[in-house]
């Protein structure tokens, strides 16, 4: 299924494009799109999905009987990069785009490589306002580095200033502007463009490397690899889940900048969806709390593999290898939600499916990042485990991962959706 994941990585050039790709896959699988402003009529055995903010998606299948629990995976659609602030600006005979950083990235990896622009444009129409996706699918820009002759000490370390070092070269001063190209691409007049959310896009396509293609390179591996793998597992297993369990797949936005948007993990999006599903099907007054008590969520966001050149940066007690299987992430400060209970349940599911699991912890003197799970737990008080896939060069313009781990994730998550998981009491589960 690696080619399907490559398709998702290639098509999901922005969070809005990733959401549109997920929607297309769900459409092809027979799921029905709903809108938040509409009245919902949900039928048992049918699949549905919802998009919020153009960049977050939640999909589910209504079980055949009263909802007795939720089986949820959550990933995110955004990656660190450069947001376009304004159209081209003339500077010393050339034009540059004005950009600012989004999320924590390795800036040096964006230098001297072909880039383009993609995102969404808000258009004025005869009926009001319309959102259109745009992707200028061509080699269009570059962020040129300064020649070593003018910075002789650059190889001893350089502190990049986004305003000075990282503004992309557009073209000659007298050339066409970004607005000109957007109008040509969309077939509209400049006066029709009301606003836009645009960003720089790395032009590299996913590529397998290694003597037998064991590894691959691609932009946006964090976190579209998890988003694609969990969606493939959801589509494969959603129709075979426990008859009283509702499988849910979610891809949220803005994780790289704190998840505090209306389509992020700190919003009410996922809880709103679960509550509305219950409201749209017959249920008892206690159905909501009972379903939450019998639920489980996997927060899927990638983890760090041991870097062969910098092995000392990893915890020697928890080495994570490319190709070694799904990563289960632990953190004493609960930046990851995994504990003995949720980790044990996930390990049991993976053992049943024959999927290898690796444990990740940070070095005790290295602070780790947070992810979706601990933010989702503010509104969803259910057991959660933080999982991911091992990768190198996280938050670089192009990242590296292993083909075998994609297959491991798909198998593990499909098994999670299929298993008959029952909470018999606090800390006691059956797995059938």
From TrEMBL:
InterPro entries: Peptidase_M18, Peptidase_M18_dom2
Enzyme's top EC category: hydrolase
Gene3D superfamilies xrefs: Aminopeptidase i, Domain 2 (2.30.250.10), Zn peptidases (3.40.630.10)
Molecular-function GO terms, alphabetical: aminopeptidase activity; metallopeptidase activity; zinc ion binding
Name recorded for this polypeptide: M18 family aminopeptidase
GO biological process, any: proteolysis
Family from the record: Belongs to the peptidase M18 family.
Any one annotated GO CC term: cytoplasm
Species of provenance: Candidatus Gemmiger avistercoris
């Amino acid at each position: 299924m690696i080619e399907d994941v490559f398709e998702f990585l290639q098509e999901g050039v922005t969070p809005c494009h990733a959401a549109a790709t997920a929607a297309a896959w769900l459409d092809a699988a027979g799921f029905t799109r709903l809108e938040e402003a509409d009245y919902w009529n949900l039928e048992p055995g049918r699949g549905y999905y919802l998009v919020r903010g153009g960049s977050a998606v939640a999909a589910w299948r209504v079980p055949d009987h009263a909802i007795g629990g939720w089986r949820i995976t959550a990933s995110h659609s955004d990656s660190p990069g450069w947001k376009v602030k304004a159209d081209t600006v003339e500077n010393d005979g050339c034009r540059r785009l004005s950009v600012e950083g989004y999320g924590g990235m390795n800036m040096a990896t964006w230098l001297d490589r072909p880039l383009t622009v993609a995102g969404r444009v808000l258009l004025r129409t005869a009926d009001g306002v319309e959102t259109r996706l745009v992707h200028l699918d061509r080699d269009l820009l570059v962020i040129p580095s300064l020649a070593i002759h003018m910075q002789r000490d650059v190889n001893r370390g350089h502190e990049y200033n986004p305003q000075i070092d990282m503004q992309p070269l557009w073209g000659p001063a007298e050339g066409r502007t970004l607005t000109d190209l957007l109008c040509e691409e969309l077939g509209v007049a400049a006066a029709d463009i009301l606003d836009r959310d645009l960003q720089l896009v790395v032009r590299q396509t996913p590529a397998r490397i290694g003597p037998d293609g064991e590894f691959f390179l691609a932009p946006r591996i964090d976190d579209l690899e998890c988003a694609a793998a969990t969606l493939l597992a959801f589509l494969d297993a959603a129709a075979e889940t426990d008859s009283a369990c509702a499988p849910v797949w979610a891809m949220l936005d803005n994780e790289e900048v704190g998840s505090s948007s209306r389509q992020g993990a700190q919003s009410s999006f996922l809880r709103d969806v679960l509550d509305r599903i219950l409201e749209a099907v017959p249920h008892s007054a206690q159905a909501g709390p009972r379903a939450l008590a019998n639920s489980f969520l996997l927060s899927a966001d990638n983890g760090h593999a041991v870097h062969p050149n910098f092995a000392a940066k990893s915890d020697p007690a928890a080495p994570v290898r490319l190709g070694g299987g799904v990563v289960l992430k632990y953190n004493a400060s609960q930046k990851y939600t995994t504990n003995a209970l949720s980790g044990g349940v996930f390990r049991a599911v993976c053992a049943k499916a024959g999927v290898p699991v690796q444990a990740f912890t940070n070095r005790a003197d290295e602070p780790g990042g947070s992810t979706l799970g601990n933010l989702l737990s503010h509104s969803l008080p259910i057991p959660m485990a933080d999982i991911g896939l091992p990768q190198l060069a996280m938050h670089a313009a192009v990242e590296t991962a292993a083909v075998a781990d994609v297959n491991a994730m798909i198998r593990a998550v499909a098994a999670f959706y299929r298993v008959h998981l029952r909470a018999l009491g606090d800390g006691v589960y059956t797995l059938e």
